[in-house]
Write a structure and sequence with these properties.
about 400 residues, alpha+beta, Alpha-Beta Plaits, four-stranded antiparallel β-sheet, 10 helices, about 55% helix
Length: about 400
Amino acid sequence: MPNTDMQYRLRRQEEGLAKVEAQLGSGIRLHELRDDPMAAAHAVRYESYLARLNRYETNTRAAMEHYDLMDGYLREYNDILQRVRQLAVEGATGTEGPDETRYMAVEINELLKELVDIANKTGPDGKQLFAGDKAFTEPFRIIEGTVEGGGESLVVGVEYRGAGANRRTEISDGSYTTLDISGGEAFWAEKMNIVSRFDATNYRAAAGGAFFVDGVEIEITQGDTLHTIVAKINESTAPVKAYVDPQTRGIALTGTNAHLIRLEDRQDSQILQDLGVIRATGDPAAPNWHETALVSGGSAFDMVIRLRDALYRHDQDFVGSQGIGGIDLALSNIAARLTTEGSRRQRSEMAWQRIGEEINNVSASLGREKYLDFAGAATDLAMMDFAHRAALQTTAKIIPPSLLDFLR
């Protein structure tokens, strides 16, 4: 019995020594749940939260780099517009002759091409920066033709073929930041107006459905009248206001700021088509207006084209009024977009700094629960080794070997 008891106690001590040596070898205090159930539970939660924080840190850092890239192109675009305005002011003074204004128009035409080139820039990942969700589609398409006074094929129109800026990234639990500014927002100048010529006085929705206004879904129930639809649009978060046009008695939409209004029927309905606002098309990207709808409100490219054409015609009155006025609208819009982009970048940077501090704090908490205190473990190991040696010596004295042990 003394031998069995001694063997049991020695095995327990050896088990403890092996455990501490394993902890020292790995640097981890918790090898099994039974080592410390409460600490293990806390460590699992810390590790889960730390993994999310690392993901958010990566997202915020990528968002800041994306904003910096877009900001550089938008500022370059703003500088080119400033040069266009300078030429417009010179052309509106009345001191320049037809040849001089024509030279100005030639320069503005080249600047216009550069503006379109900036709008069609791609990022390092190969995706279009200003195409919204259609990241692999060139957002702006140039239409060439002839212009009065111009002796060559010139840019007579620029169409937006992209989509809305709906790409977002998560920067904290349930909190997102919008990554993009679409070309229909950044490179616009005037507030858009869309007026349907369909008399919808007696209109009632034949069935339930929905449509999208700038990406915001508007639910329609069976029997909704035109005034009900107008009210639902106005109550939504879309940057568009609706009303009933007193002349056409159809629905009319006006942007609350300078941007390209995007309209689309949901696949299971055709409400906007029935109201004469859009036409049936396989590509929901604007321009998809109905042939009879009255659409106004141009892009920055339209403003530059109008100014250039007026300089070709030597129409200094137009240049000094509508020409400069259109460029000012484009400059005002890009200033607002730069402010928005800068605010998003600032928010992402603040989130990145906060997440970095949280990572340090959570890592420290995880270390206390999961990882080993080497100084304490080394002390424990020395004490346990001393105790084990003392136990062996005591055992040798209590149970000395006898002749029978050798005879076995």
